[in-house]
Predict the structure.
Amino acid sequence: MKLDKVIAVRNSKTVYRDGDKCIKVFDADFSKADILNEALNQARVEETGLKIPKVLEVGKINGKWAIVSEFIAGKTLSQLMEENPDDADAYLEKFVDLQIEVQSKTCPLLNKLKDKMNRKIGMADLDATTRYDLRTRLEAMPKHNKLCHGDFNPSNIIIAEDGTPYILDWSHATQGNASADAARTYLLFCLSGDEATAKKYLELFCKKSNTARQYVQKWMPIVAASQSVKGNAKEREFLLSWVDVVDYE
């Protein structure tokens, strides 16, 4: 395989294209368990019938672990939204429809979202009283087993050349409550500085999924706390500012 065409550089990984293959090469110190879990997540989600790139192989390239999957030619939804601002609302509607389609699936062998959140809350830079409160709130939330992407944002949607949407990056996939996944997407829009789209997204998601806005908002402090253990200092500060938010407008 040739590693001469870089298509993306992320924290601890570089993504290459070689013909009809996409090769994600991880840094040498990246957790082998996390890499194998990502490939396993993707393989399990393939079985749901969703349009996603198929895993072709997992192995080592020049001493580094790599996941090889299908390359999907096209543009990300975030690129299309930026290039065609007049169509942004239509793209956002397509985005929400895709998320609801994902959440209509079940994938029983994936890790449970509540377990992951509980573990992450324990790692967050919070005092013991706040962690206890968040875990109590988490335990009180309804238990579901819907497929949750974990990082559902427009840059993880590729619109292929024939118009077919494909969903990328299943490294954070779990099974759990769909509204927690929606809360995560809302916070991702906010983190990118696009609060107007975040608000539109939440209204659209709640309308299309017949979910009370207040219900999604109840998840936000829990999701923010669990996500605060990753990212840079500025992101952590923003996410932790949500932890004490109990009442919403």
In short: The mean pLDDT is 94. Residues 40 and 171 are 9 Å apart (CA to CA). The two ends are 53 Å apart (CA to CA).
